[in-house]
């Protein structure tokens, strides 16, 4: 095996809700321009491994599968590809910002956040169940009586990651839209930094409710039904752009193109299809950044107090899934 | 009285019981000490693992608490239950929790019953006590409930960050394993104790047997001595050189000496019998020889003068007299045989027939006869023998008294016995003669045969009676004969 999987770093507890808000506010205040472009640093040698950042948007526990996939990508790239994993989205974002890595699979929320200067470009958006879209699920324990997020007031809630759209931004938006203060709504809340662990926290009844990525929930429903069946969905969000694969703007254009081609071509070759099946994805597609506009809108509405109730047109469909 | 049952059994039982009791006591004490030590060691181990587990959680807990990372707190508790080697799996974690100083739950292994952020339920007084103790904890401490299958102990470790108390880690381990272990060792100890008691009782029995065996043999020997069965006593084996051994040796010595003495006595008796037999033989020879010499002379004379009718007329009565005397002697010697053949019972009143006979015996002498027959007529007696006894004794009495003396005969019933008393106020029997009066052919009279008292003695003996003589010189003599009554049914 030529490639090596890096072990995740020790968890660092620097992700308190308030801190992330400070950062977001700072970013907004410092400017809304996307124009700034970081200069490309000196090219790296072809033999140097390409480090690909992974976040909780994919199920990272299957080490052998990811190892085989990185081998496949290495073959296509003609250069070793290594997956780099970090506990939180922020850490991966920092690696991108600092230029330590050129590629990463991140969430739509950090992608649409304003950066000055901009250092990200959209590489590919996975197509899941026929569309480059996914949802946020608000889940509760199967045995509990909760039917709506209103009933979770004063309870314990598990968020996935402060930079996660489905696992944090959407439930925050939902509460704002109902005119609630998301900070004071729950008795206690915590981050698990992993959608799978959010499901676990709800299943174990450590948390009364939790917000998870629909892609992870559905995938785990097949691989770990005994865990997922302990939970029940009470809110299904409107569709959002699927967590995208991004490249650092300063990265070698040629390499970025090659990576994009390799990813897009996966659905055309049997080996690639095998990995897509493993990831439960149809393919990696080429889509405009506009598919993440719904997330940007949510940020804007929440930021300026423009949040609307769930009865707003773009959120109407979630009601249909209430049980 | 209370311990009478302890005093009654033999030494062998007491020894065995005592040794068994001592062995049981020692075994039980050792067992109890072992169980206690074992139990203390187990408890220390359990306490150590409780503290170790609580400490392992507390190491990272401070950061997690400061960051409100409840999920990581929960996971650190959860890890305790899935820990692999290290003896933790052996002990049962009842529960584990992280509580803030105000008593609110930061993490709990049973989150559904103990929700995050709410005060720990303390409905139970025991739980409340534990929480009050926990609140005071500032250094790793062990708290525990009562011991039992459902009991537990709790390792409590306070969580500090920069000297500020953030909460407590409480890891509760079940006593169950410990209890079962203690139960198992108690069972082993009880089994061992019972085994030792069995062994002790066997040993005690063997030892006490060994110790009391010579004593028992000695007791039996002494009982045999009492019965006079000296010949059956065999020496008791001396196994030890202790007090019992010495006692046994002394007993053996005494038994041997007594046996020797008895043998000597028997030898003396045999030689006395031989002497008596010699005297009888000599008496018979002498008594028979006297008339024989006269008779031989008569026969010689008659041979020389066979046709002299005067001689025949003179000698034939002499021959007749001599032969009759010999016949009398022989008959007297055969008295036993004779009377046995002619046993006949009759009323006690028949004794009065003797009165005439005695009166004629007194003849013209001025002797007073006192006759007192108190026997009921219904009483049966062996007429011939009893009459012979009375006659012989009264004849002697009459001969013994002076002309103005008194002879008396008294008979009466005393229970199952008939007593005959024949007394006189004659000269009495000297002490020298008293031993010999019942011997055959012993006589102090010039014409006596020496068979009268001997015949009386033999008759009394064959009727299983007793004859006693009480005599004082110049005062008189008294013979008392006691005979068992004859049962009417057998007659």
Can you describe this structure?
The complex is a heterodimer of chains A (323) and B (491). Chain A is of the alpha/beta class. Helix content of chain A is 36%, strand content 18%. Chain A contains twelve helices and 13 strands. Chain A has helices spanning 17-30, 63-77, 89-98, 108-112, 165-177, 182-185, 195-203, 214-223, 225-228, 253-264, 270-279, 293-303, and strands spanning 50-54, 81-85, 103-105, 120-127, 133-134, 136-141, 156-159, 188-191, 209-213, 231-236, 240-241, 245-248, 283-285. Chain A has a six-stranded mixed beta sheet, sandwiched between helices. In chain A, helix 2 (63-77) links the parallel strand 1 (50-54) and strand 2. In chain A, helix 5 (165-177) crosses helix 12. Chain A starts with 16 loop residues before the first helix and ends in a 20-residue tail after the last helix. Chain B has 491 residues and is α+β, with helices and mostly antiparallel strands. In chain B, 55% of the residues lie in helices and 16% in strands. Chain B contains twelve helices and twelve strands. In chain B, strands 2-1-5-4-3 form a five-stranded antiparallel beta sheet. A five-stranded mixed beta sheet of chain B has the order 7-9-10-12-11, with helices on one face. In chain B, helix 2 (11-66) runs antiparallel to helix 5 and helix 10 (383-400) packs antiparallel against helix 12. The A-B interface holds A 11, 13-16, 141, 156, 158, 187-192, 197, 201, 204-208 and B 63-64, 66-72, 74, 78, 107, 111-112, 115-118.
Provide a compact summary of the structure.
The complex is a heterodimer of chains A (about 325) and B (about 500). Chain A is of the alpha/beta class and about 325 residues long.
Low-pLDDT stretches of chain A are 1-18, 22-44, 309-323
Shape of chain B: rod-shaped
Give the low-pLDDT segments of chain B. Answer: none
Structural class of chain A: alpha/beta
Could you estimate the helical fraction of the residues of chain B in percent? 55-70%
The quaternary structure here is heterodimer
Estimate the helix proportion of chain A, in percent.
25-40%
- What's the total count of β strands of chain B? 12
Largest interface summary: A-B, 21 and 18 residues
Termini of chain A, distance in Å?
A: 48 Å
What is the chain-wise order of helices and strands of chain A? HEHEHEHEEEEHHEHEHHEEEHHEH
Number of helices of chain A: 12
Largest sheet of chain B: 5 strands, antiparallel
Identify the strand order in the major beta sheet of chain B.
2-1-5-4-3
Summed up, the helix count of chain B is 12
Distance between the ends of chain B: 55 Å
The count of β-strands of chain A is 13
Taken from the alpha-carbon principal axes, the silhouette of chain A is globular
The strand order across the widest sheet of chain A is 2-1-3-12-4-13
Major sheet of chain A, described briefly?
A: 6 strands, mixed
Estimated radius of gyration of chain B:
56 Å
């Amino acid at each position: 095996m030529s490639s090596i999987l890096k072990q995740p770093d020790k968890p660092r507890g620097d992700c308190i809700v308030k801190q992330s808000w400070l950062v977001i506010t700072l970013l907004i205040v410092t400017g809304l321009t996307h124009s700034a472009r970081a200069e490309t640093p000196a090219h790296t040698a072809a033999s140097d491994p390409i480090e690909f950042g992974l976040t909780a948007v994919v199920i990272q526990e299957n080490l052998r599968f990811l190892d085989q996939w990185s081998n496949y990508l290495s073959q296509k790239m003609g250069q070793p590809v290594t997956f780099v994993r970090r506990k939180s989205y922020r850490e991966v974002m920092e690696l991108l910002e600092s230029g330590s890595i050129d590629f990463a699979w991140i969430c739509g929320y950090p992608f649409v956040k304003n950066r000055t200067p901009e250092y990200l470009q959209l590489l590919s958006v996975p197509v899941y169940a026929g569309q480059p879209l996914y949802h946020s699920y608000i889940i509760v324990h199967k045995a509990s009586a909760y039917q709506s997020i209103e009933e979770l007031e004063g309870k314990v809630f598990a968020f996935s990651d402060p930079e996660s759209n489905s696992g944090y931004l959407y439930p925050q938006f939902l509460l704002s839209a109902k005119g609630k203060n998301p900070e004071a709504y729950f008795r206690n809340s915590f981050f698990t930094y992993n959608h799978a662990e959010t499901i676990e926290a709800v299943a174990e009844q450590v948390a009364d409710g939790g917000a998870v990525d629909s892609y992870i929930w559905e995938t785990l429903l097949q691989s770990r039904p005994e865990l997922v069946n302990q939970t029940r969905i009470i809110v299904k969000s409107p569709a959002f752009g699927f967590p995208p694969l991004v490249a650092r703007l300063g990265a070698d254009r040629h390499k970025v193109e090659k990576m994009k081609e390799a990813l897009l071509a996966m659905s055309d070759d049997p080996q690639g299809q095998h990995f897509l099946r493993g990831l439960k994805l149809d393919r990696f597609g080429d889509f405009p950044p506009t598919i993440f506009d719904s997330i940007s809108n949510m940020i804007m509405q929440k930021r300026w107090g423009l949040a609307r109730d769930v009865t707003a047109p773009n959120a109407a469909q979630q009601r249909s899934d209430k049980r | 009285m209370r311990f009478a049952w302890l005093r009654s059994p033999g030494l062998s039982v007491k020894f065995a019981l005592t040794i068994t009791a001592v062995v049981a006591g020692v075994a039980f004490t050792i067992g109890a000490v072992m169980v206690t030590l074992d139990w203390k060691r187990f408890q220390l181990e359990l306490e150590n693992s409780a503290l170790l587990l609580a400490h392992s959680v507390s190491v990272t807990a401070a950061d997690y608490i400061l960051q409100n990372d409840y999920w990581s707190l929960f996971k650190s508790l959860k890890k305790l239950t899935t820990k692999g080697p290290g003896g933790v799996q052996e002990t049962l974690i009842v529960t584990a929790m992280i509580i803030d100083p105000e008593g609110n739950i930061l993490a709990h292994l049973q989150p559904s019953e103990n929700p995050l952020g709410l005060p720990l339920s303390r409905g139970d007084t025991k739980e409340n006590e534990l929480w009050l103790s926990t609140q005071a904890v500032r250094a790793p401490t062990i708290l525990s409930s009562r011991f039992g299958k459902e009991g537990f102990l709790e390792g409590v470790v306070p969580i500090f960050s920069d000297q500020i108390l953030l909460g407590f880690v409480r890891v509760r381990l079940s006593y169950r394993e410990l209890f079962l272990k203690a139960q198992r060792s108690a069972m082993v100890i009880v089994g061992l104790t019972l085994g030792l008691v069995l062994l002790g009782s066997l040993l005690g029995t063997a030892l006490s047997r060994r110790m009391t065996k010579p004593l028992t043999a000695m007791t039996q020997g002494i009982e045999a001595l009492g019965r006079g069965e000296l010949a059956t006593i065999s020496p008791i084996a001396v196994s030890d050189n202790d007090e019992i051994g010495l006692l046994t040796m002394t007993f053996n010595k005494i038994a041997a000496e007594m046996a020797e003495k008895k043998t000597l006595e028997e030898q003396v008796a045999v030689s006395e019998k031989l002497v008596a037999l010699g005297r009888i033989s000599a008496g018979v020879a002498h008594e028979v020889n006297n008339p024989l010499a006269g008779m031989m002379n008569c026969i010689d004379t008659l041979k020389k003068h066979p046709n002299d009718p005067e001689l025949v007329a003179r000698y034939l009565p002499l021959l007749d007299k001599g032969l009759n005397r010999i016949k009398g002697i022989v008959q007297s010697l055969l008295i036993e045989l004779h009377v046995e053949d002619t046993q006949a019972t009759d009323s006690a009143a028949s004794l009065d027939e003797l009165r005439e006979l005695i009166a004629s015996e007194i003849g013209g002498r001025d002797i007073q006869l006192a006759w007192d027959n108190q026997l009921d007529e219904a009483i049966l007696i062996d007429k011939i023998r009893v009459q012979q006894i009375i006659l012989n004794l009264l004849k002697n009495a009459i001969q013994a008294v002076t002309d103005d003396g008194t002879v008396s005969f008294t008979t009466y019933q005393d229970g199952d016995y008939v007593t005959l008393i024949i007394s006189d106020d004659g000269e009495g029997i000297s002490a020298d003669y008293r031993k010999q009066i019942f011997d055959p052919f012993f006589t102090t009279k010039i014409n006596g045969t020496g068979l009268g008292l001997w015949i009386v003695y033999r008759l009394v003996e064959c009727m299983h009676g007793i004859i006693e003589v009480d005599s004082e010189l110049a005062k008189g003599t008294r013979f008392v004969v006691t005979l068992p009554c004859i049962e009417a049914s057998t007659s």
